[in-house]
Design brief:
This protein has 8 helices and no strands. By secondary structure, the protein is an all-alpha fold. Helix 2 packs antiparallel against helix 3 (46-72), helix 4 runs antiparallel to helix 6 and helix 6 runs antiparallel to helix 8. The protein is elongated.
Protein backbone atom coordinates (compact mmCIF):
# COMPACT_ATOMS: atom_id res chain seq x y z
CA UNK A 1 0.00 0.00 0.00
CA UNK A 2 1.40 3.40 -1.00
CA UNK A 3 1.78 6.27 1.44
CA UNK A 4 -1.02 8.15 -0.35
CA UNK A 5 -3.44 5.27 0.03
CA UNK A 6 -2.43 4.83 3.67
CA UNK A 7 -3.10 8.51 4.36
CA UNK A 8 -6.56 8.31 2.80
CA UNK A 9 -7.31 5.07 4.66
CA UNK A 10 -6.35 6.65 8.00
CA UNK A 11 -8.60 9.66 7.31
CA UNK A 12 -11.52 7.40 6.38
CA UNK A 13 -11.08 5.16 9.45
CA UNK A 14 -10.73 8.09 11.86
CA UNK A 15 -13.78 9.77 10.31
CA UNK A 16 -15.78 6.56 10.63
CA UNK A 17 -14.85 6.28 14.31
CA UNK A 18 -15.70 9.94 14.81
CA UNK A 19 -19.13 9.37 13.23
CA UNK A 20 -19.87 6.83 15.97
CA UNK A 21 -19.37 9.37 18.76
CA UNK A 22 -22.68 9.78 20.56
CA UNK A 23 -22.13 13.35 21.69
CA UNK A 24 -23.01 16.57 19.91
CA UNK A 25 -20.55 18.48 22.11
CA UNK A 26 -17.60 16.22 21.25
CA UNK A 27 -18.56 16.28 17.56
CA UNK A 28 -18.72 20.07 17.49
CA UNK A 29 -15.49 20.53 19.46
CA UNK A 30 -13.54 18.19 17.17
CA UNK A 31 -14.89 20.04 14.12
CA UNK A 32 -13.91 23.41 15.62
CA UNK A 33 -10.43 22.10 16.41
CA UNK A 34 -9.86 20.76 12.89
CA UNK A 35 -11.14 23.94 11.25
CA UNK A 36 -8.99 26.12 13.51
CA UNK A 37 -5.85 24.11 12.74
CA UNK A 38 -6.53 24.11 8.99
CA UNK A 39 -7.27 27.85 8.95
CA UNK A 40 -4.11 28.77 10.86
CA UNK A 41 -1.70 26.38 9.14
CA UNK A 42 -2.88 26.91 5.56
CA UNK A 43 -2.94 30.69 5.33
CA UNK A 44 -0.84 30.56 2.14
CA UNK A 45 -3.46 28.42 0.45
CA UNK A 46 -6.10 31.13 0.21
CA UNK A 47 -8.98 29.00 -1.02
CA UNK A 48 -8.84 26.21 1.57
CA UNK A 49 -8.05 28.75 4.31
CA UNK A 50 -11.12 30.81 3.43
CA UNK A 51 -13.32 27.70 3.26
CA UNK A 52 -12.25 26.49 6.69
CA UNK A 53 -12.46 30.03 8.10
CA UNK A 54 -16.05 30.44 6.88
CA UNK A 55 -17.03 27.08 8.40
CA UNK A 56 -15.22 27.97 11.63
CA UNK A 57 -17.04 31.30 11.96
CA UNK A 58 -20.45 29.70 11.33
CA UNK A 59 -19.70 26.87 13.78
CA UNK A 60 -18.61 29.33 16.49
CA UNK A 61 -21.73 31.43 15.91
CA UNK A 62 -23.79 28.25 16.26
CA UNK A 63 -21.96 27.38 19.49
CA UNK A 64 -22.54 30.85 20.95
CA UNK A 65 -26.20 31.00 19.92
CA UNK A 66 -27.01 27.63 21.47
CA UNK A 67 -24.98 28.36 24.61
CA UNK A 68 -27.15 31.43 25.20
CA UNK A 69 -30.28 29.59 24.05
CA UNK A 70 -29.97 26.67 26.46
CA UNK A 71 -28.98 28.95 29.32
CA UNK A 72 -32.03 31.20 29.11
CA UNK A 73 -34.70 29.18 27.25
CA UNK A 74 -37.67 28.39 29.49
CA UNK A 75 -40.41 27.32 27.08
CA UNK A 76 -41.77 23.89 26.16
CA UNK A 77 -39.66 21.28 24.38
CA UNK A 78 -41.86 21.67 21.29
CA UNK A 79 -41.08 25.35 20.83
CA UNK A 80 -37.49 24.83 21.96
CA UNK A 81 -36.88 22.10 19.39
CA UNK A 82 -38.65 24.14 16.71
CA UNK A 83 -36.33 27.09 17.33
CA UNK A 84 -33.26 24.81 17.37
CA UNK A 85 -34.15 23.23 14.03
CA UNK A 86 -34.95 26.63 12.52
CA UNK A 87 -31.60 28.07 13.61
CA UNK A 88 -29.76 25.04 12.25
CA UNK A 89 -31.63 25.36 8.95
CA UNK A 90 -30.76 29.04 8.67
CA UNK A 91 -27.07 28.37 9.35
CA UNK A 92 -27.08 25.47 6.87
CA UNK A 93 -28.52 27.79 4.23
CA UNK A 94 -25.87 30.42 4.97
CA UNK A 95 -23.08 27.86 4.56
CA UNK A 96 -24.57 26.58 1.29
CA UNK A 97 -24.75 30.15 -0.03
CA UNK A 98 -21.22 30.92 1.20
CA UNK A 99 -19.72 27.79 -0.37
CA UNK A 100 -21.57 28.39 -3.63
CA UNK A 101 -20.20 31.95 -3.75
CA UNK A 102 -16.92 31.27 -1.96
CA UNK A 103 -14.75 32.26 -4.93
CA UNK A 104 -16.47 35.66 -5.04
CA UNK A 105 -16.04 36.06 -1.28
CA UNK A 106 -12.34 35.20 -1.55
CA UNK A 107 -11.80 37.65 -4.41
CA UNK A 108 -13.55 40.39 -2.42
CA UNK A 109 -11.34 39.73 0.62
CA UNK A 110 -8.21 39.63 -1.54
CA UNK A 111 -9.19 42.92 -3.18
CA UNK A 112 -9.65 44.57 0.22
CA UNK A 113 -6.24 43.25 1.32
CA UNK A 114 -4.53 44.45 -1.84
CA UNK A 115 -3.73 41.00 -3.24
CA UNK A 116 -4.36 39.61 -6.72
CA UNK A 117 -8.01 38.61 -7.02
CA UNK A 118 -7.06 35.77 -9.38
CA UNK A 119 -5.84 33.81 -6.35
CA UNK A 120 -9.46 33.25 -5.33
CA UNK A 121 -11.16 30.56 -7.40
CA UNK A 122 -13.47 27.60 -6.95
CA UNK A 123 -12.00 24.26 -5.92
CA UNK A 124 -13.64 20.85 -5.67
CA UNK A 125 -14.06 21.34 -1.89
CA UNK A 126 -16.67 24.06 -2.46
CA UNK A 127 -18.96 21.75 -4.44
CA UNK A 128 -18.48 18.85 -2.00
CA UNK A 129 -19.45 21.02 0.96
CA UNK A 130 -22.52 22.37 -0.86
CA UNK A 131 -23.70 18.75 -1.17
CA UNK A 132 -22.89 17.92 2.47
CA UNK A 133 -24.62 20.98 3.88
CA UNK A 134 -27.61 20.36 1.67
CA UNK A 135 -27.76 17.07 3.58
CA UNK A 136 -27.59 19.02 6.85
CA UNK A 137 -30.43 21.25 5.64
CA UNK A 138 -32.59 18.29 4.61
CA UNK A 139 -32.25 16.56 8.00
CA UNK A 140 -32.92 19.82 9.89
CA UNK A 141 -36.04 20.60 7.84
CA UNK A 142 -37.21 16.98 8.25
CA UNK A 143 -36.66 17.18 12.03
CA UNK A 144 -38.55 20.48 12.19
CA UNK A 145 -41.46 19.02 10.22
CA UNK A 146 -41.59 15.89 12.37
CA UNK A 147 -41.50 17.98 15.54
CA UNK A 148 -44.41 20.02 14.18
CA UNK A 149 -46.48 16.92 13.40
CA UNK A 150 -45.68 15.31 16.75
CA UNK A 151 -46.92 18.37 18.62
CA UNK A 152 -49.96 19.42 16.63
CA UNK A 153 -51.93 19.54 19.88
CA UNK A 154 -49.64 22.40 21.01
CA UNK A 155 -50.98 24.37 18.04
CA UNK A 156 -54.61 23.80 18.97
CA UNK A 157 -55.26 20.87 16.63
CA UNK A 158 -57.87 18.44 17.94
CA UNK A 159 -56.77 15.30 19.81
CA UNK A 160 -58.39 13.09 17.17
CA UNK A 161 -56.12 14.48 14.45
CA UNK A 162 -52.98 14.97 16.57
CA UNK A 163 -52.86 11.66 18.48
CA UNK A 164 -51.67 9.42 15.57
CA UNK A 165 -48.49 11.53 15.36
CA UNK A 166 -47.60 11.53 19.07
CA UNK A 167 -45.14 8.65 18.73
CA UNK A 168 -43.42 9.95 15.60
CA UNK A 169 -39.73 9.94 16.60
CA UNK A 170 -38.08 8.47 13.50
CA UNK A 171 -36.05 11.55 12.50
CA UNK A 172 -35.57 12.54 16.14
CA UNK A 173 -33.86 9.21 16.92
CA UNK A 174 -31.65 9.40 13.83
CA UNK A 175 -30.88 13.11 14.11
CA UNK A 176 -27.64 12.96 16.13
CA UNK A 177 -26.15 9.92 14.31
CA UNK A 178 -26.82 11.51 10.91
CA UNK A 179 -25.38 14.83 12.07
CA UNK A 180 -22.24 13.11 13.33
CA UNK A 181 -21.84 11.28 10.02
CA UNK A 182 -22.18 14.55 8.10
CA UNK A 183 -19.71 16.24 10.46
CA UNK A 184 -17.22 13.42 9.89
CA UNK A 185 -17.67 13.76 6.13
CA UNK A 186 -17.04 17.51 6.45
CA UNK A 187 -13.82 16.88 8.36
CA UNK A 188 -12.72 14.26 5.81
CA UNK A 189 -13.33 16.66 2.92
CA UNK A 190 -11.34 19.44 4.59
CA UNK A 191 -8.41 17.19 5.56
CA UNK A 192 -8.25 15.46 2.18
CA UNK A 193 -8.46 18.85 0.46
CA UNK A 194 -5.42 20.05 2.39
CA UNK A 195 -3.61 16.90 1.33
CA UNK A 196 -4.62 17.23 -2.32
CA UNK A 197 -3.90 20.95 -2.59
CA UNK A 198 -0.79 21.24 -0.44
CA UNK A 199 0.85 18.02 0.76
CA UNK A 200 0.59 16.04 -2.49
CA UNK A 201 2.13 18.79 -4.71
CA UNK A 202 5.03 19.09 -2.25
CA UNK A 203 5.65 15.35 -2.46
CA UNK A 204 5.63 15.50 -6.26
CA UNK A 205 8.12 18.39 -6.29
CA UNK A 206 10.39 16.53 -3.87
CA UNK A 207 10.33 13.45 -6.12
CA UNK A 208 11.15 15.55 -9.19
CA UNK A 209 14.16 17.10 -7.45
CA UNK A 210 15.71 13.71 -6.66
Amino acid sequence: MSRNHLYILVVVVVSALFAMVDSATVSRNVLIGVLLIVTVTNWRNINIAHISCILLIITLIEYLVFFIFFKYWAYSSFFGNAVIYMIHSMLDSIVIWAMYNRDKISRYVLKKQGYAQELGYKIFTDSCLVVVFTGFLVIDVAAFSENLLRNLHELGVSRQIAEPFWNMYFIYDLYLPIKNILNSITISIIVLSVYALYVKPRQLRAQQQR
